[in-house]
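Researcher: Here's the sequence for the chain we discussed earlier.
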Amino acid sequence: RSESRLFNGEYFFQIVETEGLESPNPIEAAKQSWNSNYSPEAMRLLQKEGPKYQYGNGCLSDGVLGFWIARVCGLGEIIDSKKVKTCIPHP
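Model: Thanks. This is the structure I predict for it:
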């Protein structure tokens, strides 16, 4: 279940997977894309941190939007709402 797998006790996070996918490995695909002029430094960073725009252990708002859409669609509370609130910035 995603709640137990993706909640680290403070917030929900993203698991970036690049191996064992049915689609091409995003790192290999980046090397072969039309914009493959990555510097050696950029390629090392891509290999270390994963594909661009994937923020790994960062706290993202995407999940909050997904939980809201589930409620709007009538699925109810699919995740503990107290955990969802940890992803919302407080002034």
